[in-house]
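Retro notes, structure queue

What went well: the backlog is down to a handful. What didn't: a couple of records were mislabeled last round, so from now on we paste the full input next to the output in the thread. Example, using Protein translocase subunit SecE from Caulobacter rhizosphaerae:
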Amino acid sequence: MARKPGSSPSAIKNRAAKTAAALSPSAQGGAATAAAKAPAAPKKPINPVRFAQEVRAEARKITWTTRKETWITSVMVFIMVVLASLFFTFADWILGWGANLLLKIAAG
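Corresponding output:
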């Protein structure tokens, strides 16, 4: 199976470092105090052409699963649904049997 783009250990570490830096309290606090002191910047007009270009660029980054991966995942989901239904059917049967036994004992 081919490796997906951006799944190398160094790429993962770089993304984790960027995320940690963006979420750190010092980064958020510093940005909040700077924003509170500075006057609000005027809003830039929305450029539909640039927006469409950015959407296309982001859409190119999407990695779709192959037909084989989708089929295997679907089969695994079906197997897990069958196993879960068997488990809950059996558990329901045991609990119902136990409740009936207790009611019979209580009725004497």
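Agreed that this is the format going forward. Reviewer comment attached to the example: The chain is about 75% helix and 0% strand.
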